[in-house]
TrEMBL record:
UniProt feature coiled coil, ranges: none
Keywords: GTP-binding, Nucleotide-binding
Pro residues biased stretches: 159-174
Protein name: RAB34 protein
Annotated region described as Disordered, given as residue ranges: 151-174
PANTHER family in alphabetical order: RAS-RELATED PROTEIN RAB
Gene Ontology terms for molecular function: GTP binding; GTPase activity
Entry annotated with the keyword Nucleotide-binding: yes
Record field: transmembrane: none
InterPro entries xrefs: P-loop_NTPase, Rab, Small_GTPase
Amino acid sequence: VGASPLPVHPCGPPSLPIPPPRWDTAGQERFKCIASTYYRGAQAIVIVFDVNDVASLEHTRQWLADALKENDPSNVILFLVGSKKDLSTPAQYSLMEKDALKVAQEMQAEYWAVSSLTGENVRDFFFRVAALTFESSVLAELERSSARKIGDTVREYPQPAPRGCPPLLSPTTH
């Protein structure tokens, strides 16, 4: 595994014309010095751990801290993803899930459990990331491209006059 983009296939939601780039350093120490280059300006940070390895869950806090050095926490969407769910018994997974949910809450991240082998939650997870990052991009662009802010009233329409009263004139027709 290297610090290179994962293969990107053009099969995202119709509203997302170009699939977002994804980078994987697999948490390897030898990529730590260049990882910040890939983290910079991220819209979403996905921290992945092995649900069968408590140590990998413990490392997630440091991986997140490293990624947030290059990003404003208020401008990034965070995900904590437990992988290899298929290798756990339900009892083992239940114990790990409790710990993972606690870590996700501390990180203010959404928690997802997935299995690459069975495909469980993989598609839904990537659609969720794509939808949230797309929405965030659109809202940010609207904020940048206009003096108006999201939620501002664009035009007020006059209320119909009560029955028997003359119609109200809008301020622009005086």
